[in-house]
């Protein structure tokens, strides 16, 4: 090793004799070879310079220098190599012995392991067979379970138990399809499973389609049943209110024999649950009413199982929406009055079904979708009602539809639907309904009045009395009269009462259940219109055109008195039907609405009586106005008048109420007083004597006595009022007979004793009392009075009154 190192140090020294460039190239080449670098650049340089020999020379020189180094290394390690070879030779014998030993062991192992290997091969073969048999058994078991599931699915399909069939198919697909050892069976399943699902979907869609067709009929019947139950409930409420009104009436009349009872109310709801279907679906509807949702829920569940839940929801909503749109169609061939119940019942049943589906369908339809359908239905129903109401010309038709719509509202409000828009449409046509009702009543009243014969009504049976008198509370005594009974009115009165009562009941029926609780004021307003505009106008027309005799006028006046009592009943009846306490209704009572007709009837009676009286008063022309002696008896005309009035009174008091009779008598007596004053004032009497005035004084006393004699019929105060009807004639006679006629000019005396006199009439009549021959004042002298003072006083009175005039 030392020699090699020496050689590496000596080599460059030996090379110093060469060319410096060659030495450098040789040095670089040696360094590149030692470092394992690429010699390509040296080769290219040698060939480029055309001196490849130099490169070869340098390479041979490098090789020789390395050979010497190798030789040195080999010499340095030779001894160690010889020692290693000796060691290997010593090991060779051991290897041979080991080889022979291994050979013997192998022979022994082969002889011993041969039977064992054959047994092992038999075991492996048996184990493989066992594994194959086990695999076959597991495959058979899998196939058996698969076949059982297929058989069960077929059984469920045959029994239309589609949900269980789908569960079987899903189990087959999830658990056995990938594990099926039979490729034929797997291909069959892969082909049949989609077919089965599509078959189930078709069958369930067909059942659902049949249900959609059936539910329309069921909805109509269901709607009619629900509305019918609402009507029955309303009728029970009406009956209860009727009993309450009767109890209030008994309480008002201080009757203590009141009977109280508790009544059980049946549940009107349709909310019972039906039975479970054979698939385990809860019906969710009132099965007792034929309201079955099982096909719908089965279809929904099947589509959920198939993974088509959202698609089925949309399909269901669209189909129901189309059905609802179809339900909105109003036939132009059938009058709406005949078809409105079916129309509204169909819609009611539709939304009763949807409410049930919403609450029990498990999300099949949302509340928002139901509300959208309801908003559409309300809009359409309002449009139909607006159109149909605008065409109607009969109040009863409008009332029938309104009642059914209000029942529809009551029915659907129970299910949470808002019906305010429908009620608003009904309220909007309130005025039109009442106008039609007024028109109908106007025709009925006109027909009733035109048939009136102005004869007192005969009643032969108690039920007739109850129907024509008691039912309108127009009786004048509490006990039942003897029969036959002659009523103090004609048949027109109960006929008109029935028309008005029917109007009140129809008006209340229209206003009831329309969303407005306090509607008495509205009913009262239209009742006032009926009485004041229709009935009062018709009576005025009848009085002005059909009454031609005193008896007719007397019956008419009696009718008006009875109608006055009936009007009180009408307003009480309206208050009771409207649920208003009677005390509140009586508190707001107004004046008699038929006062024009009543006044006209009394004026007509008074006018006819005045015409009769005028005929008797013509006899006043037979009075001796220039009598020389005071008459011993009354004048002829007053006898005739009193006989006529007494005869009239005996007949009238059987028909006319006392107050009406008093007003008529007062009017007639006032007319007689005017006729007496008119006779003194008229041109036919040029002058008269004081004796004639004394005779008139006797006549007036007879008339006053007649008025006072009516005290048993009327009160004493009212008899005095009758007597005041003769005030003008009495005060004039008193003035002419007075010894101090100038007291007429005294305001205090005039207000107390002569307030009914007109000073112009006093002047004219007083001038007729002045006799140019002074015979008049001679008569005063014959009675012991001084003529000159009275003449002077009378002249002074006439002069003063002329000055005032």
How would you describe the overall organization of this protein?
It is a single chain. This protein is mostly helical and 805 residues long. 74% of the residues lie in helices and 0% in strands. It has 28 helices and two strands. It has helices at 2-14, 20-35, 40-49, 52-158, 162-176, 183-252, 294-306, 309-327, 336-360, 367-391, 395-413, 420-428, 430-450, 462-468, 492-511, 520-546, 550-577, 582-587, 595-617, 636-652, 658-681, 690-708, 716-724, 727-737, 747-753, 759-769, 775-782, 787-804, and strands at residues 458-459, 485-486. A two-stranded antiparallel sheet has the order 1-2. Helix 6 packs across helix 9 (336-360). The protein is rod-shaped. The relative contact order is 0.03.
Topology at a glance:
Layout: H1 2-14, H2 20-35, H3 40-49, H4 52-158, H5 162-176, H6 183-252, H7 294-306, H8 309-327, H9 336-360, H10 367-391, H11 395-413, H12 420-428, H13 430-450, E1 458-459, H14 462-468, E2 485-486, H15 492-511, H16 520-546, H17 550-577, H18 582-587, H19 595-617, H20 636-652, H21 658-681, H22 690-708, H23 716-724, H24 727-737, H25 747-753, H26 759-769, H27 775-782, H28 787-804
Antiparallel strand pairs: 1-2
Helix pairs in contact: 1-4, 2-4, 3-4, 4-5, 5-6, 5-7, 6-7, 6-9, 6-11, 7-8, 9-10, 9-11, 10-12, 11-12, 11-13, 13-15, 13-16, 15-16, 15-17, 16-17, 16-19, 17-19, 19-21, 21-23, 21-24, 22-23, 22-24, 26-28, 27-28
Strand element count: 2
Q: Portion of residues in helices?
A: over 70%
Shape descriptor reads rod-shaped
| Main structural class | mainly alpha
Radius of gyration of CA atoms, rounded to a whole number: 66 Å
Distance between the termini: 188 Å
Compute the number of helices.
28
Give the neighbour order of strands across the main sheet: 1-2
Largest sheet: 2 strands, antiparallel
- How much of the residues is beta strand, in percent? under 5%
Mean pLDDT over the full residue set? 80
């Amino acid at each position: 090793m030392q020699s090699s190192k020496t050689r590496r140090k000596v080599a460059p020294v030996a090379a110093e004799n060469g060319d410096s460039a060659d030495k450098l190239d040789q040095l670089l080449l040696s360094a590149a070879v030692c470092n394992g670098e690429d010699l390509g650049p040296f080769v290219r340089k040698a060939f480029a310079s055309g001196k490849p020999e130099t490169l070869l020379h340098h390479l041979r020189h490098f090789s020789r220098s390395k050979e010497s180094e190798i030789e040195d290394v080999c010499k340095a390690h030779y001894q160690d190599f010889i020692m290693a070879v000796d060691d290997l030779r010593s090991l060779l014998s051991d290897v041979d012995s080991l080889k022979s030993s291994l050979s013997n062991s192998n022979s022994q192992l082969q002889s011993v392991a041969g039977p064992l290997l054959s047994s092992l091969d038999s075991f492996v073969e048996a184990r493989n067979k066992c594994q194959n048999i086990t695999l076959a058994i597991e495959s058979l078991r899998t196939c058996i379970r698969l076949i059982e599931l297929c058989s069960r699915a077929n059984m469920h399909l045959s029994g239309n138990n589609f949900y269980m069939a789908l569960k079987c198919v899903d189990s087959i697909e999830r658990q056995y399809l990938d594990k099926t050892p039979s490729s034929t069976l797997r291909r069959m399943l892969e082909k049949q499973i989609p077919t089965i699902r599509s078959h189930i979907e078709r069958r369930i869609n067909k059942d659902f389609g049949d249900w959609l067709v059936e539910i329309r009929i069921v909805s109509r019947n269901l709607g009619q049943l629900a509305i019918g139950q609402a009507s029955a409930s309303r009728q029970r409420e009406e009956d209860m209110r009727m009993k309450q009104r009767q109890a209030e009436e008994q309480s008002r009349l201080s009757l203590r024999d009141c009977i109280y009872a508790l009544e059980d109310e049946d549940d009107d709801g349709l909310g019972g649950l039906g039975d479970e279907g054979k698939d385990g679906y809860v019906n969710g509807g009132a099965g007792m009413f034929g309201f079955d949702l099982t096909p719908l829920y089965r279809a929904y569940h099947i589509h959920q199982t198939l993974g088509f839940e959202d698609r089925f929801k949309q399909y269901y909503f669209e189909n129901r929406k189309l059905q609802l749109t179809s339900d909105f169609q109003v036939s132009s061939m059938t009058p709406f009055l005949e078809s409105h119940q079916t129309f509204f019942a169909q819609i009611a049943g539709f939304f009763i079904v949807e409410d049930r589906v919403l609450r029990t369908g498990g999300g099949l339809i949302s509340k928002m979708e139901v509300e959208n359908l309801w908003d559409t239905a309300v809009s359409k129903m309002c449009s139909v009602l607006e159109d149909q109401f605008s065409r109607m010309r009969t109040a009863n038709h409008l009332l029938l539809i309104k009642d059914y719509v209000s029942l529809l509202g009551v029915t659907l409000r129970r299910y949470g639907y808002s019906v305010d828009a429908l009620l608003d449409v009904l309220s909007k046509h309130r005025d039109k309904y009442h106008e039609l009702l007024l028109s109908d009543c106007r025709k009925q009243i006109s027909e009733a009045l035109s048939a009136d014969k102005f004869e007192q009504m005969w009643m032969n049976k108690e039920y007739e009395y109850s129907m024509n008198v008691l039912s309108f509370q127009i009786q004048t005594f509490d006990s039942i009269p003897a029969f036959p009974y002659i009523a103090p009115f004609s048949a027109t009165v109960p006929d008109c009462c029935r028309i008005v009562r029917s109007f009140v009941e129809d008006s209340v029926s229209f206003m009831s259940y329309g969303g407005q609780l306090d509607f008495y004021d509205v009913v009262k307003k239209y009742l006032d219109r009926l009485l004041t505009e229709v009935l009062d106008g018709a009576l005025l027309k009848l009085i002005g055109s059909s009454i031609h005799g005193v008896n007719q006028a007397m019956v008419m006046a009696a009718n008006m008195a009875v109608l006055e009592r009936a009007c009180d009943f009408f307003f009480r009846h309206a208050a009771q039907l409207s649920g208003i306490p009677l005390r509140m209704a009586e508190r707001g009572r107004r004046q008699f609405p038929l006062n024009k007709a009543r006044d006209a009837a009394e004026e007509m009676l008074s006018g006819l009586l005045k015409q009769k009286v005028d005929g008797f008063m013509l006899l006043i022309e037979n009075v001796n106005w220039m009598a020389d002696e005071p008459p011993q008896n009354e004048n002829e005309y007053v006898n005739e008048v009193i006989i006529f009035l007494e005869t009239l009174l005996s007949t009238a008091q059987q028909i006319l109420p006392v107050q009406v009779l008093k007003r008529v008598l007062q009017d007639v007596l006032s007319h007689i007083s005017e006729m007496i004053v008119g006779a003194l004032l008229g041109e036919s009497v040029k002058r008269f004597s004081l004796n004639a005035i004394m005779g008139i004084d006797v006549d007036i006393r007879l008339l006053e006595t007649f008025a006072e004699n009516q005290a048993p019929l009327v009160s004493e105060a009212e008899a005095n009022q009758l007597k005041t009807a003769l005030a003008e004639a009495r005060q004039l006679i008193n003035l002419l007979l007075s010894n101090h006629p100038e007291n007429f000019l005294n305001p205090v005396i005039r207000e107390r004793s002569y307030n009914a006199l007109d000073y112009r009439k006093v002047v004219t009549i007083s001038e007729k009392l002045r006799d140019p021959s002074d015979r008049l004042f001679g008569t005063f002298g014959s009675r012991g009075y001084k003529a000159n003072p009275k003449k002077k006083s009378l002249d002074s009175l006439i002069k003063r009154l002329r000055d005032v005039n």
